[in-house]
Amino acid sequence: EVRLVESGGGLVQPGGSLKLSCAASGFTFENYDMSWARQTPGNGIVRISWINSGGESTTYLDSVKGRFTISRDNARNTLYLEMHNLKPEDTGKYYCVQYTLSARGQGTQVIVSS
Q: What are φ and ψ of residue 96, in 5° steps?
């Protein structure tokens, strides 16, 4: 069974940082590209970052470029998202996604507020 479990969300002040993790199991993690997506209040789920299977290539939504960094540890079957200079508009539920397998975790909530 494919399983993705996110962690690391929480409440943070504007300008703060968080690091999200996603533990993957049930598939050969190192063979698959991975993504982070988020759902902000009143909106659908939007992919914000992608990383290829080997970790050499990444892409970002313009609104998070320069502030967020996606990475992976294939030895630990774990995907990460480091978020810096967080803004109130980053508030939302963050998901770890593998699109080919149609797999998505339960999400972790991030709230950016003073």
A: -95, 130
75: Cβ contacts below 8 Å, ≥ 6 apart: none
Beta pairing, strands 108-112 & 92-98: antiparallel
Q: Taken in order 17, 91, 50, 76, is the CA torsion positive or negative?
A: positive
Tokens 């294939």 — which residue? 74
Q: What pLDDT tens digit does each residue of the chain (114 aa) get? A: 999 999 999 999 999 999 999 999 999 999 999 999 999 999 999 999 999 999 999 999 999 999 999 999 999 999 999 999 999 999 999 999 999 999 999 999 999 999
73: Cβ contacts below 8 Å, ≥ 6 apart? 80
Amino acid symbol at 74: N
